Fold Kynureninase.
Amino acid sequence: MNADSANDVANAAPAPGNPGSSEPLSFDYAQELDLADPLQEHRDAFIGSDDPALVAYLDGNSLGRPLQASADRIGSFITEQWGSRLIRGWDEGWLTLPARIGDDLGAVMLGAAPGQITIGDSTTVLLYKLCRAAVAARPDRREIVLDTENFPTDRFVLQGIAAECGLELRWITPAYEGGVTAAELEAAVGEHTALVLLSHVAYRSGYLADVPALTEIAHRAGALILWDLCHSAGVLPSQLDNWQVDLAVGCTYKYLNGGPGSPAFAYVRREHQESLRQPIQGWLGSDDPFRMGEDYQPAAGIRAFTSGTPPILGMLALQDMIALIESVGIEAVRSKSIALTDYATDLYDGVLAPLGVQLASPRDSQWRGGHITLDHPSFREVTAKLWEQGIIPDFRNPNGIRLGLSPLSTSFSEIWVGVDAIHQAL
């Protein structure tokens, strides 16, 4: 990839901690950052990291790369467990896998004590379950607070629940490049608020919400709050228990590398598990599934929030990414994530800003998750061209290219190649 276009403006942006003497916007500088990166060695653990046809993968916040360990685990499961043990596998650990993986997820990166997280269903289904249970637990309150910039699924699910239950939606319209602030939430909640639904990291802008402050505001109003962790789980640490979070939902195919359509997770704070009643009453969530009783009685604890047979194959790969993050440390993952997004922002300043591209994400890493979004009217066409070249960012309506930087599999060199290709296309 030609380095001339970036080198021409090499002095236009500050260096994000120069490890050597190369110009900050040069490809050589990106390579020096890779050599100085203590997590760079883990890229080799991901399948496709050495694929010459895939020049730069910048969409790890939509679908993470698979780990070789996951390929080995799934192959072994098919031949040695499914193929050999068959139905006996349910009695030999499969049925308890959702809660076991949930406990690991809580311990390694979510700050949740055991018995509060389960794996299963899609994000959409889990959002419905927990939101529907939350509003039913506040029958004297008729309002749900949410924001206009949240992911469509979150908004659509709550629109459906509001119509189903005769509730009113109270909308917050945050800054386009930001997210919901404490002042905005304070103005929206009140004595009629049953539930607040917000995202830890905004799917488009990458804005990182102040979870403890916003949670406290919801609680002062007497409301429950549910946090969407889809764009934060696996890329930055959470402290759900310490933050007093009531409910949370997140997917596992982004930074947790569970694979296409891998099941989501649900967190239900222990103190709410007996009082909240989820609406999809399946056999596995009953107190004694194999009794095959006539009437539904919910199980004790987090299992009450499950419904049907757990998707065992779909959750196998998740275990390997949790183990990798545990070995590295979620704080180290967050540090690398900040370095990647800072570097991408520096390249934007020096190479893309002069061409009229707008930064649609927070500039301060304190308020930014693991991705940045850049806006330009030509970016729909530019994204299609980049994909043809084996450079894979994400396009988000109406005119954004989203650079999703997965810390354990994305290199600084890939970011340089991606930004340089955008520059050349413009």
About this structure: Residues 1-18 have pLDDT under 50 and may be disordered. Residues 235 and 334 are 6 Å apart (CA to CA). The two ends are 16 Å apart (CA to CA). Residues 4-66+329-425 form a domain with the Aspartate Aminotransferase, domain 1 fold (CATH 3.90.1150.10).
